[in-house]
Design brief:
Oligomer: single chain
Number of helices: 6
Bound molecules: zinc ion
Radius of gyration: 24 Å
Strand content: 25-35%
Number of domains: 2
Structural class: alpha+beta
Largest sheet: 6 strands, mixed
Number of strands: 15
Helix content: 10-25%
Strand order of the largest sheet: 2-5-4-3-1-6
Length: 324
């Protein structure tokens, strides 16, 4: 598995694109000079040619020994203006440097800016909206995600999935157009998780974790529904409920796919396609494994009988009768 690191950056109210001296910092160096991480998200430094961006992480003497190149660095910072921990960005496909690189740059101590990591610019992003980090403490026994100075290793891919999903969700719900940033986040997801980002599926999983607390939605027509300060797509609530009611099993072959986080992966197939105005109702959804989903969508299909409780159809010459 590719390494996951959460690294602490000292707070920079200019968004790590300009050097800033932070008088509220906790160590004396940072109250006199900008930290070398000040320019981590300035992607146009002289040294950042082609698709490479150079950055700095304070190691406080410890080296990146456990780290395997190609991993991901998630940047955490304690916002000293508001006193909250935040996730502020990501570097993807990171290589740690055994020898620090020295760059000439004004403002820094001895006019020198140091770099000890480099990453793929196309897989790196400063989050347009920072995420509150408390939500992710569960991945670290409820402790803060990275030490005061330095960084921590993590092994749970779900942490990466959750952070990327949460950021994309915030950007989608914002009034501004963040299409480019969302593309970058999807690229990081594909690089790191190894599959295409599927918003609906991830949201359905999140809903399943809280499904007992969700209200009945039969007569609600709004597209987004807010429950306990979290906003979900109405359709994803409906599909999550159908998946649970049908026990996460393929209705054709009974396959159940267990994921490493203990949940089940299963897909929802529309009988009448979405583009033909097919709805997310129990009469119009089949719960299928990925193979049968593709066969259902692309195979030769003939519906013989369709009621509110069942469907009888022929698929590539085989006849099925399934409950709805
Ligand atoms: Zn199947």
């Amino acid at each position: 598995m590719k390494s996951i690191v959460i690294a602490n950056l000292s707070w920079n109210n200019k968004g790590w694109k300009e050097s800033v001296i932070n008088p509220k910092a906790n160590h004396s160096y940072a109250t006199n000079y900008p930290g070398h991480e000040s320019l981590n998200f300035d992607f146009n430094k002289k040294i950042d040619i082609c698709n490479v961006v150079h950055g700095y992480v304070e190691t406080s003497g410890k080296q990146f020994k456990q780290y395997e190149n190609g991993g991901i660095f998630i940047f955490y910072s304690n916002n000293t203006d508001d006193n909250i921990g935040q996730i502020i960005g990501i570097y993807g496909n990171v290589e740690t440097l055994n020898q620090k690189i020295k760059m000439t740059h004004n403002d820094f101590e001895n006019n020198t800016l140091w770099s000890n990591i480099k990453a793929d610019k196309n897989l790196s992003i400063l989050f347009p909206i920072y995420l509150k980090s408390d939500k992710y403490k569960k991945y670290n026994d409820n402790k803060r995600l990275a030490g005061q100075i330095g960084f921590s290793y993590y092994e749970d891919k779900n942490l990466v999935e959750e952070i990327i999903f949460d950021e994309i969700k915030l950007l989608l719900q914002s009034n501004r157009n963040y299409a480019n940033e969302i593309q970058t986040l999807k690229k990081i997801y594909r690089y790191y998780i190894g599959e295409e980002f599927d918003y609906d599926n991830i949201e359905q999983q999140e809903i399943l974790a809280e499904i007992e607390t969700l209200p009945n939605l039969e007569d609600d027509e709004t597209e987004l529904i807010t429950i306990k300060q979290k906003t979900y797509k109405r359709n994803n609530i409906l599909i999550a409920k159908i998946k649970r009611d049908r026990n996460f099993e393929c209705q054709i072959c009974a396959t159940k796919i267990l994921k490493s986080n203990g949940s089940y992966y299963i897909e929802a197939a529309h009988i009448k396609a979405k583009k033909d105005k097919g709805n997310e109702t129990k009469e119009n959804i089949l719960i299928l494994c990925p193979n049968h989903h593709k066969e259902f969508d692309f195979g030769k299909r003939e519906v013989l009988k369709h009621t509110t409780n069942s469907i009888k159809f022929k698929l590539n010459g085989v006849e099925y009768e399934l409950s709805l």
